[in-house]
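#data-curation
PF: Archiving a pair of folding outputs for the training set. Convention for this channel: one message per protein, sequence first, structure tokens after, nothing in between. First:
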Amino acid sequence: MGKKRFYWLGYERAVEHFVKSCRVCQLQKSPNPTTATPVGETKSFYPFEWLSWDITGPLPVTDKGNCYTSVVTDKFTKWVEAFPLQAIDSVTLTMVLVDEIVCQYSFPTNLQSDQGANLCNQVIDQLCKLLCISRKQT
């Protein structure tokens, strides 16, 4: 703001020094970001400890008839897998989890999803119980 009205050689350094030495400025400054996990968010310590699962769509229909996407994210590595789908019924989603995640990589320890009926149903719950995968709905 002051740069529009005033300028002298070393202006930026003088302003920086002033702000660093001004007690009021330091009290108004936001604290350094912490490494704490935000409230309501889970912290992962190794790959496949926590997978987050969601469905996007309906989207424009592709040539193959797909109009949904199943998105799975590993919370530790931030690796994202996305799978095009024609339907989001419990059988289709269970097949995606088994064929595309479990058979390709491994069993997750925990599986997090929203409370949508397509991801929270008896078929997926029974699969998770059978594979000892803990479920969490947000």
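PF: Second:
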Amino acid sequence: MRFLNSQHISYRDLKEQIIKQLAINELTQRIGDSVGVTDQEVKDYWLRENEKIKAVYIYLSPKKYEKEVVVSQEEITIYYEKHKEDFTIPEKVKADYLLISSGEFTKDIKVTAKELKSYYEGHLANFEVPEKRKVSHILIKLLPSASKKDEENPKKKIEEIQEKLEKGADFTTLAKKYSQDTPSAEKGGDLGFFTYTQMIPSFSRAAFSLEKEG
């Protein structure tokens, strides 16, 4: 329960989520059991969709040659035996699609506390909410190609801003005046909420190591 509280999930919401997921799993299983596709069918479908044929088409009217062609019953039988697949009617599946309301389907599902706990513990990742931090910053840029001499100006600017903050200057005002990150500068340096993976590693390490405002 302490974990649920930390993730801002109530027991009731958790129970409803798990029941709904179990219902979806059961429905998916039922549908899957009723439809079978063989490996050969998959292969045939792929070949039909991907095979490319280069051909020249010549139109011939069969009626012009019917009188000249004489076929015996034996020839018909031999041809049929060699080309049975051409006369086979493919298996067809007739399926009816139903629109099922999750509420109607889940009302008959009974889940015990033990089953809830087991499902929850087996799917913790589905209920975890990544930690977010809200940080404001003042960006003073330093080009990667900057020489040691060029580093002095940004360093002095940072020290100047730090000194103003220590004397009680307003951070928002300083960010709007000095920050070279235009989008956040317009908002007083506010970057909004973000997760650890949404920022570059060095910035995230610094932001998530902060224990209090300041």
